[in-house]
Write a structure and sequence with these properties.
The complex is a heterodimer of chains A (472) and B (91). Chain A has 472 residues and is of the alpha+beta class. In chain A, 29% of the residues lie in helices and 22% in strands. The longest helix of chain A has 16 residues, at 266-281. Chain B has 91 residues and is an alpha/beta fold. Chain B has a domain at 29-88. Chain B has a three-stranded parallel beta sheet, sandwiched between helices. The chains are: A alpha+beta (472), B alpha/beta (91). The A-B interface holds A 131, 133-140, 144, 147-148, 153, 161-164, 167, 185-186, 188, 190-192, 196, 199-200, 203, 227, 229-231, 234-235, 277, 281-284, 456-457, 460-463 and B 1-11, 13, 36, 64-69, 91. Chain A: This is Thioredoxin. Chain A: InterPro entries: Thioredoxin-like_sf.
């Protein structure tokens, strides 16, 4: 009799797992030899007859401590003790007077099979990992990075190969079930599981602690009102922009300060990229296919930043939108238009500057339809903060300043064919629909600049910004 | 040998053969779908004139907004009522 554990045949009788690096294992060596136990060693194939240097047996038996001594009867484990305890060993073996020269008791050491650096690999190799994605074997002669380009899975930059080990490690970033469907991703309307998000997050270069933010961003971007299908398919420039609020941003090392909208921060860069890779790979949204952007914008690789909540004149953006704490807001955005005002020291003047620059969003003669995101820098923010202007006050002022006489907007006015129909003449039209202008705070401490991120068609006919809680 | 996990939706879309292209449109019902982009109606109005002159029966349809896929009811309606569809995408 005996039992087959993976590739290993366990005999009936006494079975032990040891590690030569463990002093307790060395201590009990003579006892194990005297008992005639079948012994597998984790770190020295030559120490005993059993070689478990690949840790398969240890993993499958759930060994957490070495030495572990088992009794196997009719192929079934019937008893187990860990470490050295003469009393327990005698009880398990039924042999008295074991190791008379040894102390009564000595704790064991940690098993290599639960080593944090090895557990993911073991789980991927031997475990019931629960991973259900198709496994793709790469040929030995295949360069793994080229292989991923060849299969069309990248955004044009190299990706981290999503090995089962890496995906399992990524999944440790969330408590959610890998099989849970997070979203239905356009354009192919494919149900996307937590596992598929994890695969793409690995490829994007995320750390496991970023995964909850990626999941929240995907949930937000695939909500009905965000209209991701249309945003992907449009000939316009825009793509999803992710703004992160709450303590999670600092905890995972996101950048809300110097160069917040730029390169150089892993969390910012890879969270936005993971969202885009999910759209590409899971949803099937690829440029030149359903993505028909005439030009696109560089933010379609990734566009993600944290709001600078400290010293901000405004409450956190997500909190103002009804979700306090850890949250993401997705908004359709099309790159960055710089706003320079180095002289305004009062909020009225600075608001007029911002209004003048916002007026050209999409076209100076196009009102209502096109949304925008205004990112106020700390030095501009200080002007509003010191004057006691919060977000609502600034938005109210901008709305007043951006009520445009239709006479200036009608087709042909100013010698430009673009504009609103003549039937609108005589009215005053708002530049932005209600809710069509978002205001956030980010950037480094120096620089009297702000940024306008031009949006897309907003409201019911287009995309509405969406805020979602980041869950663990 | 290295193994990676497939990042795609692993979708196996069912293959469907295209219907044979009609040799002529005379007597056929042709749907014209306006996706609600500016001036899409200009090209569709002209197409309606030309198709009607050729003896086709023309039916007009309109998506609520170009920014979202056509509602499933609209797609079903077109499929039920038409043999040929022309969609105006452009601005």
């Amino acid at each position: 009799m005996g039992a087959t554990v993976g590739c290993v045949r366990l005999p009936d009788g006494l079975v032990a797992v040891v590690k030569r690096d463990c002093p307790t294992c060395v201590l009990v060596e003579p006892v194990l030899r005297a008992l005639g136990a079948a012994v597998w060693c984790q770190d020295d194939a030559a120490w005993f007859d059993g070689d478990d240097t690949n840790l398969e047996l240890s993993y499958r038996l759930g060994i957490e401590t070495v030495p572990t001594l088992l009794r196997v009867r009719a192929g079934v484990e019937t008893a187990r003790v860990v470490g050295w305890s003469r009393e327990q060993w005698e009880q398990l073996t039924g042999v008295s007077g074991l190791g008379p020269a040894l102390p009564d008791h000595r704790p064991g050491c940690g098993s290599l099979s639960v080593d944090p650096f090895r557990i993911d690999g073991l789980e991927a190799r031997y475990g019931v990992s629960g991973l259900s994605s198709r496994r793709v074997e790469l040929a030995d002669a295949e360069d793994e990075h080229e292989a991923l380009f060849d299969r069309g899975w990248t955004d044009g930059l190299p990706v981290v190969p999503p090995t089962p080990e890496r995906v399992l490690r990524m999944l440790r970033g969330t408590t959610r079930d890998p099989r849970e469907v997070v979203a239905v991703v356009p354009p192919d309307l494919v149900e996307c599981t937590v596992e598929k998000v994890a695969v793409n997050a690995v490829m994007a270069g995320c750390l496991p602690e970023y995964l909850p933010v990626v999941l929240a961003a995907l949930e937000a971007a695939t909500s009905e009102e965000f209209a991701l299908h249309g945003l992907l398919a449009t000939t316009h420039f825009a793509g999803p922009v992710v703004i992160v609020n709450g303590p999670v941003a600092a905890r995972i090392g996101m950048n809300s300060g110097v160069n917040a909208l730029g390169q150089g921060n892993r969390a910012n860069a890879t969270i936005g990229r993971a969202l885009q890779l999910v759209v590409r790979n899971v949803g099937g949204g690829r440029p030149g296919e359903v993505d028909r952007a005439a030009m696109g914008n560089p933010g379609k690789y990734t566009f993600c930043f944290a709001e600078r909540e400290e010293d901000s004149p405004f409450p956190p953006l997500a909190a103002d939108r009804g979700v306090a704490g850890d949250a993401v807001t997705v908004v359709a955005g099309s790159g960055v238009q710089p706003v320079v005002d180095q002289l305004s020291r009062d909020p009225e003047s600075l608001a007029r500057t911002l209004a003048a620059c916002l007026r050209v969003n999409a076209h100076p003669k196009l009102p209502v339809a096109w949304d925008a995101l205004l990112v106020v820098s700390p030095e501009h923010g200080r002007v509003f903060r010191e004057a006691g202007w919060d977000r609502g006050r600034l938005l109210a002022e901008l709305e007043r300043l951006l009520l445009l006489p239709a006479a200036e907007l009608v087709r042909g006015a100013g010698g430009m064919a673009e504009g609103v129909p003549d039937s609108m003449a005589g009215r005053e039209l708002p530049k932005f629909r209600p809710g069509g202008l978002l205001v956030a705070h980010a950037g480094g401490p120096a620089g009297l600049f702000s940024a306008i991120v031009g949006g897309w068609v907003g409201g019911e006919t287009g995309s509405v910004p969406v805020t979602r809680e980041v869950r663990t | 040998m290295r193994t990676v996990l497939d990042p795609t939706g692993e979708r196996q879309a069912p293959g469907r053969a295209l219907l044979p292209r009609p040799v002529a449109l005379e007597g056929r019902t042709v749907g014209l779908l306006d996706i609600s982009k500016a001036r899409g109606d200009v090209v569709l109005d002209r197409l309606e004139q030309l198709l009607t002159a050729d003896g086709a029966h023309v039916r007009r349809y309109r998506k609520p907004t170009f920014a979202r896929p056509a509602p499933v009811d609209l797609r079903h309606e077109i499929a039920e009522q038409c043999e040929v569809v022309i969609e105006a995408l452009a601005d």
